[in-house]
Amino acid sequence: MELSEAIRGRRSVRRYTAEPVSREVITAVLEAACWAPSGENYQPWYFLALTKAEDLAALRQTLEISAKVMEPELRRRFAAAPAVVGETTAFIRTLGGAPVCVLAFLRRQYPRREVMILSIAAAVENLLLAAHDRGLGACWVGAPVCCGPGAVITERFGPPRGELAAMITLGHPACVPAPPRRRSGRYEIR
Ligand SMILES: Cc1cc2nc3c(=O)[nH]c(=O)nc-3n(C[C@H](O)[C@H](O)[C@H](O)COP(=O)(O)O)c2cc1C
Q1: Is 40 a domain residue?
Q2: Which ligand 1 atom sits closest to the C-alpha of 13?
Q3: Is the residue at 181 inside a domain?
Q4: What is the pLDDT of residues 38-84, one digit of tens each?
Q5: pTM of the full structure
């Protein structure tokens, strides 16, 4: 797939089929993540791909709190499109039936935390594009980090991997949403 096509064609997929993702494909996607640039080349990430039913169930249980915490904020943000609120909270609770959920950890404390979090974000974008390139769907789930159970997930799955920084669902798409509109006027060249 052409890179420009991958960049524009990638979508946040929130519903998956039950078809498993092979270990080989998961490995390829995680390898792509690890080729991201990073501040001072620290490569501060560690990825844990959860595929076992009991781990995914435990994860979903922790996310109930995120859905509750996020709901009022989502109601304000999407006042003009209330269906989005139900869809988003349902996705957070169920993870869309994703057969794989990748936890991205910040491995340890580093001198410049912001730069290290940005480095992990770069790795996650690589992961999303590599998944799309292989016909998979994925969605970055910020909810557990910003709203509730990040510390609980870190406690359960972190040691010795680090602190939860991002979560990504992965699987074969059951449906692919239409591209959300992109705003204009977000750059200039001078
Ligand atoms: C840092 C970050 C956190 C996100 N967290 C969530 C989330 O918690 N739940 C969700 O449904 N989508 C989440 N998304 C996906 C965005 O909603 C999505 O990228 C945006 O609506 C644009 O759609 P697209 O990815 O299909 O282009 C997140 C995206 C980013 C970059």
Answers
A1: yes
A2: 26
A3: no
A4: 999 999 999 999 999 999 999 998 888 888 888 898 999 999 988 88
A5: 0.95
